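User: Quick sanity check before I run a bigger batch. Here is a single chain. Can you write out its predicted 3D structure?
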Amino acid sequence: MGAAVLGGLMWAPEELESMPIDRTVFLPGETTDGHYQIELACESCHTDKFADRTAMQEACEGCHSAELTRVDDSHPRTKFTDPRNADRVEVLDARLCITCHQEHRPEITSSMGLSLPGDYCYRCHENVGEERPTHAELPFDSCANTACHNFHDNRSLYEDYLVEHRAEPDFRPVAEVRWKRAQGVAATVDRAPLALAEHDGRADGAAGARAAAEWAGSAHARGGVQCSDCHADASGGWQQEVDLVVCRDCHTLEAEGFLASRHGMRFAEDLPPMRPMEARQPMQAEAAEATLDCNACHATHVYDRRTAAAESCLGCHADEHSLAWEASPHAALWRAELAGAAPEGSGVSCATCHLPRTRHPADAKRMRVDHNQNDHLRPRDKMVRSSCMECHGLAFSLDSLADPVLVSTNYRGRPPREVESIHFATVLRWQLEGRTPPWDDANKKDER
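Assistant: Done. Predicted structure follows.
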């Protein structure tokens, strides 16, 4: 390859590769909320120099296929590669992600990165009203309303599930979230606990003393994890700064979740870490330049999970929903738990809903914190099974999540109205069973 001419000057190829380039000039339009954090890692999506739609599809699946499998995707690619659905593919080629999600097209993009008109479901389901009279008068742009349908993840919305849980009380008799069990990482390293005097830290002065004292009260000390286990570099020397790579050696699942999350997705693409000042959501001004790594939430050396569960979140997030948490019933329960006035697991922090405890994939007896908030954030009903239903019935959960005012006030009060998903599913079940469904609205409540 010969030299290139740029700006009237001639450059060798190796010189061009080493030149700092402002990649924002190559963005053809505003990037969606789901991708803007990594928009400067162009090769993450455009892996084959804009070759074709197939290469782009492979890039999409490289990041999203595992999640779609995990949520039992309602519209998997295999559904549209089935020859029996060839006529539907002619109308809407859902084999390709970019059919519904065109990037850099803000003028046609709506919630969830959808770049199709909101009534796109009619293209395949135009006769749904004939099969389900309850849907006959519903507009197609209401299909994706909260608590109705999602294109991919319907784990909380499929008919059998709605009918099975339709009669649950608003509040469970024992409202407690699953708590991370004691046998965490510390137990797996099989070491004796360490006392303050046994630390091998090398920092001097007041800062060193404070770090050692914080470590002595941490799970690391209780699990026998020395200062050098984190601060020693590859050559046996001392590194003051500890990054994600070190944390990941022990906290593998947590790190994987973080790297897949909006907090950590830049790390995964070898970009500089995310900072609150770059977020599209309102953030606290004083946190604008904070670096989002493990220590941003888990205060260095203390690693207090309870601080990370709420205080750390509110140190950055300043949107209406987050700011309303302090005055919410959930926060009151959280404070009661921290004060020892309520059982462990009865409080509801930010992490309770958005970074919930889930079963360890390799050991069902253990719990772990899912650090990928994307799995429990949008659409809102994604958090129903992992969070809301720990304490509430399904109907109360869906009704609450569907009310935008209640969401903005962080659930201060009861849902003002019922969404009709459970009613519709129940009516359909009655029809299938040969029973006479109650069509009048007055009977809806009784069906639940």
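Residues 312 and 328 are 18 Å apart (CA to CA).

User: Great, the batch can go ahead then.
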